[in-house]
Amino acid sequence: MSVDATIVRKIASLARIAASEEEVAALVPELNNILGWVEQLGEVDTDGIEPMTAVIPNTLRLREDKITDGDIRDKVLANAPQAEHGFFTVPKVIE
Amino acid sequence: MTNATDLTVAEIRDGFRDGEFTAREIAEEFVAAVEAGRALNTFIVETPEHALAAADAADQERESGAVRPLSGVPLGIKDLFCTEGVQTTAASHILEGFVPTYESTITERLFLAGAGMLGKLNMDQFAMGSSNETSYFGNVLSPWRRNDGGNAALAPGGSSGGSSAAIAARMVPAATGTDTGGSIRQPAAFTGICGIKPTYGRCSRWGVVAFASSLDQAGPMARDVRDCAILLEAMSGFDRKDATSLDVPVPAWEAALNGSLKGKTIGIPKEYRVDNMPAEIDALWERGIALVKDAGAEVVEVSLPHTHYALPTYYIIAPAEASSNLARYDGVRYGLRDLPEGANLQDMYAATRADGFGPEVKRRIMIGTYVLSAGFYDAYYTKAQKVRALIARDFEQAFETVDLLLTPTAPSAAFALGEKSDDPLAMYLNDVFTVPASLAGLPAMSVPAGLDAQGLPLGLQIIGKPLDEQGVLDAGLAIEQRAGFTARPDPWW
């Protein structure tokens, strides 16, 4: 499988990264080079192999359903590029 | 007193306890070394006030007879660890100015143990790189130079390149690192120091800026094996704030250190004899085999048949996880915001991320986004997770007959800055020997074992069974005791 400029533009859009036409043109061969290389995995017989989900066997823990954190609004907002009235603010999304 | 900056962590700790010097004296020497070493660009932020305050606290406590495990020891902290009140950037523009309001579990443990912080160490951006050339804050220079009389600037390795360079230059006695595919071990090898990546789950990932969560592990980097054991003990332990943290006891690794390998069997994986392996690396490996035999180990050849597929597997899984983890950088909650005139929310996200991420980070996010996208998920990501299972199974089978594995850490000595930075694939191939253990979550360490013809350090890697950090450290000690590695870079900075 290989990518062209249209697909690269689509990936950039899905990844929410603005890319100029020059950047897209440069990324096409770069990504194809990497994708061509990883495709050698196709040689490996993986029939009947379960995909790995946890590298070291571990059990998911449960805890009491009790609040253990919170009430730190100002700390949460401390690094916001823009915050007003105790909220994060963003450009208007509804006209 | 000998030069304070030549002391190891153990020597500082013990000398401080014995009253040979004050913590303040030690901290001041290292603060001065950090200032004198600015040409190497190892620090993004220097925090002399933190190191000195911890030292003063240690001195006061000692007066009243109380000494903590790391009292008097100043450390460097990789800029991937969130530090309360101190800028944490992961060496990316997108986090420039981010000042965490909380402390990572690892740094909290180290500070509670009495350690101070000399500053935040430079690194590859978001830990993505093998040469420290992807940092937004400039390249780190290795303190090492080739013995050819040239002054070529060499890579300190990556991604923990600020950590490795600062330790090798004796600006810090030790530092934290993180390792996703080799980011502790390869820079350790390039700079003639030690570094251990513990079993996945030993060190809490809480407060560590995430790259690829199923692979990311923190660990210590230091000048010798004992110091790695000391620091790993302080860093390890169960943390309920990390869902993958292992709830197992932390052994007293330092106290149990033993450089005899009698009764141990060490495997030499034949698939690590890659094509075009430089003769010097092969010779280093042979020397390592002789050293562990001298320490009493039996050495046998083993097979890890899927080794060849580890790198392509890694370069699907790590970017996939990164593309997901790095979705959080949106210009809303923290870090950079780029809001072009008249832009809507979507434009703001795209502009912020285009401006804030470096080229290698964007490349990996794009690869990750592609392999996770509808229609390609199974062909790439699920396939890679299956091959990862086979790679882990290879190790399990090998460990049925051997206790440890011995390999070179990297396929070459340090390369020059700029030598590989134009070719992402050439750079990725640097991790050929370190990535397989990462994919299997195994403890692995690099110890310096010799110099190449150009006078640059080379490292050997020991890989152990899950949770057998002791075995790894012991084999590291056995090599260290016999390799007689005393080389250090001549200060030119």
Task: Describe it.
Chain A: InterPro entries: Asp/Glu-ADT_sf_sub_c (IPR036113), GatC (IPR003837). The complex is a heterodimer of chains A (95) and B (493). Chain A is mainly alpha-helical. Helices cover 35% and strands 4% of the residues of chain A. A two-stranded antiparallel ribbon of chain A has the order 1-2. Chain B is α/β, with parallel strands linked by helices and 493 residues long. Chain B has a domain at 4-263: Amidase signature (AS) enzymes. Chain B contains 16 helices and eleven strands. Chain B is globular. The mean pLDDT of chain B is 97. The chains are: A mainly alpha (95), B alpha/beta (493). Chains A and B meet through helix 1 and helix 2 of A and helix 10, helix 11, helix 12 and helix 13 of B.
Summarize the structure.
Chain B: Belongs to the amidase family. GatA subfamily. The complex is a heterodimer of chains A (95) and B (493). Chain A is mainly alpha-helical and 95 residues long.
Give, in order, the helices and strands of chain A.
HHHEE
Detail the poorly predicted runs of chain A. none
User: Radius of gyration of chain B, Cα only, in angstroms?
Assistant: 21 Å
β-sheet strand percentage of chain A: under 5%
